[in-house]
Structure formats: structure tokens, C-alpha cells
Known about the structure:
Elements: H1 4-16, H2 20-35, H3 38-41, E1 45-47, E2 68-75, E3 78-83, E4 90-92, E5 98-100, E6 114-118, E7 121-123, E8 128-129, H4 135-140, H5 143-146, E9 150-153, E10 159-160, E11 174-176, E12 181-182
Parallel strand pairs: 1-2, 1-6, 6-9, 7-10, 9-11
Antiparallel strand pairs: 2-3, 4-5, 7-8, 11-12
Magnesium ion is lined by residues 130, 134, 137, 169.
Amino acid sequence: MYDKVQLRSCLLQTRMALPVIEWRQKSDDICSHLTNSQLLTNAKTILAYFSFRTEPDLSSLFYDSNYRWGFPRCVGKTMSWHVWKPGDSTNTGAYGITEPNSDASIIEPNEVDLILVPCVACDHRGYRLGYGGGYYDRMLSKTEWQSIPTIGIVFEFAYLPQLPIESWDKPLQNICTENKLVLSAE
Ligand code: ADP
Ligand code: MG
């Protein structure tokens, strides 16, 4: 069994070596699965991410102004979530990740209908491998976030039967790859 550090490095290498044309096509296919899902169409406020290190690119979705989109800023060990729409300014934040301005309106957990979670890998149980910061584990361990639907976003090559997990790892409810949207049985 690979440990998390090796797996992360191996899967990131594979992802970053994807030809741009494949990355674009797979990202567009993920967006289509999402726009066809009631999880999305029934939502109003959706938390997402700006593609970093060849994460699946969801940016075409952000132009749909039927939704209110929120994006994270890493502040110490936590994320704060802010409203952002195309045309609003961004900064480069911690880890080199694009983020909304600190003066953009804050989104509180009770306003959120759906969370799109970037993943280095996911497994068939919903467990997630991130970059190693534990940001989403810390967030999803809090009661105010626990009942909000989540969709892990991952390319199919990194959707694996079983990842190594630790006591603090929080599973996601649903997973979307370029091939399919896997909904939780609930
Ligand atoms: P990732 O989920 O980003 O792949 P890990 O699962 O390896 O990263 O977690 C990284 C760190 O985050 C761990 O050292 C762990 O101690 C910390 N962490 C995760 N969840 C919590 C939590 N609920 N409270 C405090 N620390 C946490
Ligand atoms: Mg984790």
C-alpha cells in the first residue's frame, strides 16, 4: 500500500502531465455532469475553487449567474469563503492559489447549498486525498458544515478503490469524474 505522500506525488505528476487538450475535454465533461445534476440545479449558493496545478477547471460554470459562487481564502489553518463573479478581482494567496479579495462578501455555512471539493484523489468510499494541508478535513469536521452536500471533483485516473486514511479524514458524499457523477445512496 502506498502512503499518502507517495500517492500524492505520483498522482500529481500524472495530472500535471495531462496534455492540455485532454485536460480541457475532461474538465468540460465534468462541468456537463454537474450542470445536468439536480444537486447543482437545486442549489443557489455553491462553494467552488479556482483550478490550481491542473485541477479540473470548473470556470465555465461560474458565468451562470443563477448561482451565487463562493471561493476560499486560506487564512492561517482555516478557509474563509467569499462571493466572487467573473470580472471581480483576485489575489494570489497562500500556496500560490488564486483567491477572492479579502473585502469580498463573506459566505456563512448556513447560506451554502453545495460544496465542490478539489481532490488529488478520491476513493470509492468518498475518502479524499488533498495537498496535505488538511483544510477540507478541518472544515468538514465542524458541525455547521457537516450536513451540506459535497461533490469531490477528480479525474477518473485518480478515482481509486481505496485510499490510505487517517482518523481525521472526512469522506465526501458524491464524486464527479469526466465519466460519471457518483451519487451517495442517501
Ligand atoms: P489532506 O486531507 O489535505 O490530504 P491530511 O489528511 O494528510 O491532508 O491532513 C493534514 C493535516 O491536517 C494532518 O496533519 C492533520 O493533523 C490535520 N487535520 C486534519 N483534520 C484536522 C482537524 N479536524 N483538526 C485539526 N487538525 C486536522
Ligand atoms: Mg485528509
